[in-house]
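Hello K.,

You asked for the raw outputs rather than the summary table, so here they are, unedited. I folded two proteins back to back in the same session to keep the settings identical. This is the first:
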Amino acid sequence: MTHDEEYGDNMVTMLELIWGEGYMAPGGPGNVAKLLSGIETQGKRILDIGCGIGGPALEMAKSHGAQVVGIDLEAPLIERANQSAHDLGLAGRCGFQAVDAGDLPFANESFDVVINSGAFTQTPNKNEIFAEAFRVLKRGGTLSSYDWLKSPGEFSEDMLYWFKMEELTYALETLEGFSQYFDAAGFVNVASEDATAWYREEARREYDLLKGDFYPRMVELLGQKDADHFVENWRSLVVVIDNGEMRQGYCRGQRPI
């Protein structure tokens, strides 16, 4: 199954500028620590679904002592991630591979932990990916997920405009809906946390940087057309966070022992 590449060079450059080297989702190392909070990681095998250019997976190996496999649908992102692992001397503990959508290319009960940082946000068939995460987890293992979410109801014109500016595939779900996917896949001890208030403040800070201090650098790196596009993208993001439509949250569950 093929996948149209959505994260071009300028998009990746922009995300790294605002979220930090190697990161394609907000929060940086702090978000990795929150995803792994309370989970034993030293020497454990972690699967990072939708690893992008590898920042979170490399952090798991470097700071949390894990053996990490990162997977993504987009081969150019995987190439960059593997190069970063090599450059940082982490290739022995952190490897990346491109995969097709559908069944994960791993045996049953292969991992102690499965991490998702925004990938399920863009996965239309959530029942399938939750079932696969359950399958590759060892008994007692944890799926820990951070996702961009939505409020209940139909999308407003503001939300549809933000989708247009993002130019990415979204399959948003409510936080309650995410919990139900965990339940349906067979996970237990399911817990969720709304993180919208945190990112509301972050998005405003990011928008101020993009239209202010970061703007000259963006024009230099991306050209003025793309720089202006991303400023407008973030303005529209702030709108849909402020009106309560675009939300964020954490959810985790365990495969029963």
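The second followed immediately with the same parameters:
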Amino acid sequence: MSHRLGIDIGGTKTALALADAAGVIVARERFPTEPSGSAEDDLLRIAARARALAEASGVGWPEVEAVGVSLPGPFDRRGGRVLHPPNLPGWGVVPVRDVLEAALERPVRLENDANAAALAEWRYGAGQGCQNLVYLTMSTGIGAGMILGGRLHVGHRDFAGEIGHTPVEWPGERCACGFDGCLEAYVGGAAWQRRLRAVAPPEGAIAVRAGGQGQIRPEDAVAAAHAGDAFAIAELERLADYLSRALAQLVFSVSPERIVLGTIAVAAGEALFFEPLRRRVAERTWPGQAHAVEILPASLGEDGPFRAGLCAAD
């Protein structure tokens, strides 16, 4: 047995990757997560597709020696359970490791999705060469993975990195976690989509591009901003402002060398997002701190989720 399987379970998409002993990805697949309301049924469906991927690749399931799973937190690392993940509807306290080990007949290692993505960017992407990195997932929800002193930092009971639930507004919008004013309620993809569908002009560039106000997705706003739409540009500036409030807290509390941002931020780009974000972080931190930290886009692109799942297997 010489191969590893990586599974990255997101709020909207699941990615599978099969890699050989040298870490070369030999097969991959991405498909909608589509929570059914039964976490066990969802996991068994993912397990079946994982086995099918290995067989279709020509490697065969007998050659797979270990499985890594990257998934949204919070979770109990020792018990191998997720604990009511806000972005997986219908998932309560779920024994993910037990279910998948029974279905796949292989050892399964779980990792928080932000931690796994941080490891992937640190080993293969924009975090290479530094010892103190914070990586932020910016997709359905918001999370952070931290490499401190050259090691993954998970904190007491694995709760480190839940930056999406840092309060950035008082009083604030209701978050999927149940609290008000969380960063995720302002910058998370699901929350931003709800806002755009509610406030974007019905005849504006975003709605026209989406085919109707009720069809708007975050990528429509990003594309409209790149095309010069003033409303869309203002929305990206709003995201940058709220995100800078949380990043300033990171700079003061963790003092990382690099902060790497994924997904929405990468699509938004330098001029429309990273430049205003860096400026706002500088306004909210001491001058020496702002110059000491790099704020960069993730560089793994489409490989990111596949590498995250595989890093969870290590």
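The first helix runs from residue 39 to 57.

Happy to rerun anything if the numbers look odd on your end.

Regards,
P.
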